[in-house]
Amino acid sequence: MKRINHPVIWITGLSASGKTTIAKTLQKRLKKKYIQAILLDGDQLRSALVKEAAIAKEERLQLAYIYSRLTKLLYDQGFFVIVATISMFEEVRQWNRNNIQNYLEVYLKVSEEIRKQRNPKNLYGTGGRDDMVSVNLQGYEEPQNPDLVFEDADGLSADQIVDCILKKGELI
Q1: pLDDT tens-digit profile of 7-22?
Q2: How far, CA to CA in Å, does 1 sit from each of 30, 77, 101?
Q3: Which long-range contacts (CB under 8 A, 24 or more apart) does 66-70 make?
Q4: Which residue in 47, 87, 111, 134 is the catalytic one?
Q5: What's phi and psi for 35, nearest 5 deg?
Q6: Is 87 marked active-site?
Q7: What domains are defined for the chain?
Q8: pTM value?
């Protein structure tokens, strides 16, 4: 069977930056093209792989590498993989670049003001968790070499962002 040259699309950004929305929109668009894509969302991965949320930097780093190795495993078996996760460590993103063929990194750089307005998980304000990377930026390493950057969505809709991703990944 001939291998389709498709990328692993790794969508990163802080909580409430729109990662899951973009990833789900992308997955739906690919499905319309008869491309079945596996979506690995950080929240779902965390709940499937660990009993309690990893808080310490070492735990978060270990979990990030598990996400990367799982992505590589699926990709190497021929699956189209979309990952939506905060991905707070540059060393893990660099590992992805060095170990996953056709790795495409998308950074959703969204201001705190917009993330606070969205606040889908109530991470900001009353009841929020101050140990979350999205609230307390300690330890977060901004992506250094993403393939695409959308700053405050650059005035684009989710569908328009997905168009840009598909074009960059040479899928349209």
Answers
A1: 899 999 998 899 999 9
A2: 20, 12, 18
A3: 67/40, 67/42, 67/92, 68/92, 68/95, 68/96, 68/99, 68/100, 70/40, 70/45
A4: 87
A5: -110, 115
A6: yes
A7: 8-168 (3.40.50.300)
A8: 0.86
